[in-house]
Amino acid sequence: MTIFLILAPYGAYSLLMLVTSATMSVFAASAICLMTVAIDLAYGRSVKILAAGSAVVFAAIGLYLALLDPQLGTLGVKLSVDIGVFVLSLGSILLRRPFTLQYALESVPAETAAMPGFLTANYVITGAWTVAALLMAAANLVLLYVPGLPLWSSLAVAFAARNSAIYFTKWYPEYRQIKYGTPARALPDAR
Length: 191
Hints:
Layout: H1 2-19, H2 22-42, H3 49-68, H4 74-94, H5 99-105, H6 110-113, H7 118-145, H8 151-180
Helix pairs in contact: 1-2, 2-3, 3-4, 4-7, 5-7, 7-8
């Protein structure tokens, strides 16, 4: 469910870009981000860096389109979104609060969060998402400056980068658990 809430604004944005204007797409995505923030608050969870930051990124792009440059092309909008996600992700690492840490702290027992390597694992996973965002931005940038390339090439890179980051996010904690083991106190009681 968490991964759905994290990716919902981006999925909606991508689908809406196919059927409506870029301005409507980014404002809808911003609204969905704000709804995910509201859901977190309603359940007593923290406001997530990624959700709040994405709401700002989408809204800023929407305002830019609405007020300054309504003719910005689809590739320009996609590139802007990818750069915004890259900045959020890298920024969370540089601020020493990898964005995945907030999600992880709310989904694991306190004993697991206190384990050595837990923070490192979150840096690695956030790094994977940072690389994915960078690859998506690079694919759109190449497509922007090499117009002869087929559109599907950028879509293929985006699909591969996003899905690889999702897979890595699920795989890496299991890998660390197998490699380093889990102390008995971190396992739930078998009652």
